[in-house]
Specification:
Helix 9 crosses helix 11. The chain is globular and about 65 Å long. Strand 4 and strand 5 form a beta hairpin. The relative contact order is 0.12. The chain folds into three domains: 84 residues, PGBD-like superfamily/PGBD (Muramoyl-pentapeptide Carboxypeptidase, domain 1); 72 residues, PGBD-like superfamily/PGBD (Muramoyl-pentapeptide Carboxypeptidase, domain 1, Orthogonal Bundle), CATH 1.10.101; 183 residues, Aminopeptidase, CATH 3.40.630. The chain starts with 27 loop residues before the first helix and ends with a helix. The protein is an alpha/beta fold and 372 residues long. Helix content is 38%, strand content 9%. The site of zinc ion (ZN) has 5 residues, from loops.
């Protein structure tokens, strides 16, 4: 088994908070969050940076989450904290180059976007300085007659600013590369590795619903059944968990990267205080204007077959910047087949529910491969 701690995605300074921060909390971690929010131009209220997580700080956190494609819950946990830290890096504030763990941040994202617009393939615009981004920097340096060392220093930034200004109206025509080279074209379920990620587990039950089992349990049931069905098709299957255990949010994509997965499917279930909310939802990677085309297509096929099988409306595929979608180096989707709170429209005690969901996701995967 591969030692995933050697994966380039882990670990990153500043990633982990000591605790989750929410309305009513106090302390120096709240101070830290507030000063970062202020630095980014968010209004944390009349008392400003005072170490108290009041309604103004919560509103600022919500606005930040919405602007960054995160789950908008007003709570600062690992995913929001990581994005907050990265958002603070402005272009030219630090020397960027390939290292392990990778540089990440708003400055890396701007670099990738500039390189892609100029026609140098910097890979997905995910704000993570990996091998593909380094290759693009080397290409750029060679073309611009600079020292070819992969270091993004002042000479590179100046030269890039000059050609970006001169690039003219054709600059936007450059094809923006997708994750995993764009699609699974020419491949089939029989010869790929699929990582299945049952959401939550252990101390984290997920959402509570009206069904007989908590979200974490249904996620696991659907995942195991989907894995078995895919094995019949010849796919190699990896699970981020196979029992009721805790798995860290950032370990899930790190495992998938270490295993060299071709597809990543995270299984969750939805819940809403209003029993009227119903339908199947699926999410693909989207961050500041960039999105995964292959992820969107896969989400669309899975949604169509889920709604057909379960008789529920399909919401349109939704672009999000969730950690499992961003950190995975392969095409990734997060699927929520139904609302555990909508017992009115679906029989949650149906013993075949998990199997029906798994079969529907499988049918969606097959359609994706038929057209990709
Ligand atoms: Zn969930």
């Amino acid at each position: 088994m591969i030692n995933f701690w050697q994966s380039q995605s882990l670990p990153v300074e500043g990633r982990f908070l000591m605790r989750t921060l929410k309305l009513g909390d106090r302390g120096k971690e709240v101070l830290d969050v507030q000063s970062r929010m202020c630095g980014l131009g968010y209004n944390v209220g009349t008392d400003g940076v005072d170490g108290f997580f009041g309604p103004d700080t919560q509103a600022a956190v919500l606005a930040f989450q919405q602007a960054n494609g995160l789950l908008a819950d007003g709570i600062v946990a690992d995913n929001t904290w990581q994005e907050l830290v990265e958002a603070g890096y402005g272009t030219g504030e630090r020397l960027l180059y390939l290292k392990i763990p990778s540089f990440r941040g708003a400055d890396v994202l701007i670099l990738q976007r500039s390189l892609n617009r100029l026609g140098f393939n910097a890979g997905p615009e995910d704000g993570i300085f990996g091998y593909v981004t380094e290759r693009a920097v080397l290409d750029f340096q060679k073309n611009a007659g600079l020292v070819v060392d992969g270091m993004v220093d002042e000479s590179v930034l100046k030269s890039m600013a000059r050609v970006t200004k001169d690039a003219g109206p054709h600059a936007d025509d450059a094809k923006i590369p997708d994750r995993n080279g764009g699609s699974a074209a020419g491949r089939s379920l029989a010869n790929i590795a699929i990582v299945i990620d049952p959401g939550h587990g252990g101390d984290d039950p997920g959402v509570s619903g009206d069904g007989p089992v908590p979200e974490k349990e249904l996620n696991l049931q659907v995942s195991i059944m989907l894995g078995r069905a895919l094995e019949q098709e010849g796919s190699r299957i990896y699970f981020t968990r196979e029992s009721d255990t805790d798995v860290d949010l950032y370990d899930r994509p790190a495992l998938a990267n270490a295993w060299g997965g071709d597809l990543f499917i995270s299984i969750h279930h939805n819940s809403c205080s209003s029993p009227a909310a119903q339908g199947s939802a699926a999410y693909f990677f989207c961050r500041q204007g960039y999105f995964s085309e292959s992820g969107k297509l896969l989400a669309w096929h899975i949604l169509n077959s889920l709604s057909r099988e379960l008789g529920l409306p399909a919401l349109p595929p939704i672009g999000r910047n969730f950690a499992v979608l961003r950190e995975t180096e392969m095409t990734a989707v997060l699927v929520e087949p139904l609302f555990l709170s909508s017992g009115r429209d679906i029989d949650l005690s149906d013993g075949r529910l998990a199997d029906r969901e798994a079969q529907a996701i499988l049918a969606g995967l097959k359609r994706y491969f038929a057209v990709a």
